[in-house]
Write a structure and sequence with these properties.
- This protein has helices at about 170-180, 345-355, 385-390, and strands at about 10-15, 25-30, 40, 45-50, 65, 70-80, 90, 95-100, 110-120, 125-130, 140-145, 150, 160, 180-185, 190-195, 200-205, 210-215, 225, 230-235, 235-240, 245-250, 255-260, 260-270, 280-285, 285-295, 305-315, 320-325, 340-345, 360-365.
- The protein is mostly beta strands.
Length: about 425
């Protein structure tokens, strides 16, 4: 044996029997303390294929720990990096060899703890540390989360933009598994691959009112595929406000606004006229602009207009807004006369502008327009059912490659 001799302690056990026949057993060492076998130094009993001295390991090569000699075996190996990420591995049945089954992270510091036992069952311990090489910056995949930190409505999706395309289920699974979204209170959610460089995350239902949403990445240093490693990502924190929803019935020419399920306003409106009908479906508020110039040329309309529009709340990338339309007050509540936007009086538009925030919900029903697409024209994420949404996760099934179609000609303001 290569380790120091162990001092054996003789145990004594005494059975104490009371007059009632109940018994208590007491066992201990001669000095009255419980028996505690201290692990011996197993330095001479194990070897691993890590670097020597100041050298760094190649993260592409698996880690291997082997037992040396015939008088001992490996019982357990744990390998973790400084971020607390564990390396999965397999130990042979005879305890002679352990090897990693997942790639090491690049640019990481590892601690390997090896537990052994000798031929008499005595426990041993060996701790080893090493660093791995850092990949070139050009080979790192950076992740940018969106939107910006702040307070949002219950419909706001989380987005992740990648600095390089990622294709293939296995590579996407590595990325997706490392992107963490946690909410308090907890709610079920999933990532969806919009295209090879963009992911969206949303809960099954809307975010709970008052929730805190934390987004982070454990991707840094992880191997994604050949010549591509995980890079940095700045964490993100969102807070969720009240559940504010505006439902516009295009056939009734009226918008009903709810806060946490209760009606807080009912507003006469006008929506898109024939040929410019407003899109049906759920839209997420993208932002607010006090004034926007809208022209017929921007959307190719045959009838000329050039207007400055005020209290404009944007709901699509193609230029659909909820805004003040004082020129159509006579039609509001009775007819649809716009080029696709939802128009209302200046007073009502100002109230709506002040009431909603980014991430709130604007839904249009009973319009003759096309359906709001899930992707490619703002945030239509809620127009996809939960079952289909989950199919867009690389962790559940194959994700479809290719960007969501965006009709660039439609990305213009309209009234």
């Amino acid at each position: 044996m290569s380790h120091s001799p162990r001092i054996r302690t003789v145990l004594s056990c005494t059975m104490l029997v009371t007059a009632l026949g109940a018994g208590v057993t007491a066992c201990g060492t001669s000095d009255g303390h419980p028996l505690s076998a201290q692990p011996y130094d197993a330095a001479g009993q194990v070897a691993f294929n890590g670097p020597v001295g100041s050298q760094k390991a190649d993260p592409d090569k698996p880690l291997e720990v082997t037992a040396q000699g015939e008088d001992g075996r490996i019982t357990d190996v744990t390998a973790t990096d400084a971020m607390g990420r564990h390396v999965a591995g397999e130990l042979s049945a005879d305890g002679a060899r352990w090897h990693s089954t997942t790639p090491l992270a690049a640019g990481a510091h590892y601690t390997v703890r090896v537990s052994t036992e000798d031929d008499e069952g005595a426990p041993g311990r060996k701790i080893m540390t090493f660093d791995t090489n850092t990949p070139d910056k050009k080979k790192r995949l950076k992740v940018t989360f969106g939107p910006e930190a702040g307070k949002y409505g219950v419909g706001q999706p989380v987005t992740a933009s990648l600095s390089a395309p990622v294709k293939g289920k296995e590579a996407r699974a590595v990325v997706e598994r490392a992107l963490k979204v946690r909410s308090v209170p907890a709610t079920e959610g999933a990532w969806y691959w919009v295209d090879s460089e963009t992911l969206h995350y949303r809960p099954k239902e809307y975010w709970p009112t008052g929730a805190t949403v934390s987004v982070s990445s454990n991707l840094e240093g992880l191997k994604i595929k050949d010549k591509l490693w995980g890079g940095e990502a700045k964490p993100l924190k969102l807070t969720i406000g009240d559940r504010v929803e505006a439902v516009t019935d295009a056939s009734a020419h009226r918008m009903t606004v709810y806060r946490n399920g209760e009606v807080i306003n009912s507003i006469p409106v006008t929506t898109g006229k024939p040929g410019y009908s407003t899109r049906n479906g759920v839209k997420v508020v993208l932002g607010k602009e006090y004034s926007v110039r809208m022209t017929s040329a921007s959307i190719g309309a045959s009838d000329f207009y050039d207007k400055m529009v005020y209290y404009a709340t944007r709901v699509t990338d193609s230029g659909e807004y909820v805004h003040a339309a004082p020129w159509s007050v006579g039609s509001q509540g009775t007819a649809n006369t716009s080029h696709g936007c939802t128009g209302m009086s200046t007073g009502n538009a100002a109230w709506f502008y002040e009431t909603v925030r980014q991430g709130d919900l604007v839904t249009v029903i009973n319009s003759n327009g096309e359906d709001m697409p899930t992707f490619g024209n703002g945030l239509g994420d809620w127009n996809m059912g939960w079952k289909k949404w989950r199919e867009g996760s690389a962790l559940l099934t194959a994700a479809k490659d290719g960007p969501a179609a965006v009709d660039a000609a439609r990305l213009r303001p309209r009234v």
